[in-house]
């Protein structure tokens, strides 16, 4: 999407197949683009991200952590629920894990100032949805023309705008309108009251 690379993942539950996925994804990480990887990674980064069930495979966790560090990725999924998956069993067989997340690189964070993602409540699926957003919305570069009522009271407003619009300009029609409006606005803002 534009200058951003989004990768959606549904990793296999098989340790060997996941290892291959980490290698293939690492090739994308060398592109130098702003990158976000989101989805079901089917592995936790630490024992603390699992509640219930047996101990997760240490070498599988190490491989996943190596992939994260090798590609300088940061887990932006730091708010909301602690766990993103539930096996929907009860009692001693009940298990919760954080296997869904959104990983981003520094270029992603530079291009999306204030980026955050959140694990939402599970509803129908055994996986929780993840939502991401910018906490800071950057000011757009194409701010529309703004009109100040005080300009109407200036004696030379009509002439300034007419002169600006009558200047020859060669471009496609819509850009002519935009450029002439910008020129007129710049000249009007210089008027002294």
From TrEMBL:
Gene3D superfamilies: Endonuclease/exonuclease/phosphatase. It comes from the Eukaryota. InterPro entries: Endo/exonu/phosph_ase_sf. This is Uncharacterized protein. It comes from Coptis chinensis.
């Amino acid at each position: 999407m534009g200058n951003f690379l989004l990768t959606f993942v549904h990793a296999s539950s098989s340790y060997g197949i996941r290892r291959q996925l980490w290698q293939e994804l690492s090739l994308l990480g060398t592109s130098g683009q702003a990158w976000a990887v989101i989805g079901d990674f089917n592995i936790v980064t630490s024992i603390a991200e699992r509640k219930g069930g047996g101990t997760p495979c240490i070498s599988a966790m190490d491989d996943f952590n190596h992939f994260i560090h090798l590609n300088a990725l940061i887990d932006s999924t730091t708010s909301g629920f602690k766990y993103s998956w539930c096996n929907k069993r009860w009692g001693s067989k009940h298990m919760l894990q954080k296997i869904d997340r959104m990983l981003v690189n520094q270029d992603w964070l530079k291009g999306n100032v204030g980026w955050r993602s959140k694990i939402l409540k599970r509803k129908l699926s055994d996986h929780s949805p993840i939502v991401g957003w910018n906490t800071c919305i950057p000011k757009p570069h194409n701010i529309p023309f703004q009109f100040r009522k005080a300009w109407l009271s200036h004696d030379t407003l009509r002439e300034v705008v007419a002169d600006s619009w009558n200047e020859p300009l060669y471009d496609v029609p819509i850009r002519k309108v935009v450029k002439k409006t910008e020129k007129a606005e710049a000249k009007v803002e210089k008027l002294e009251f």
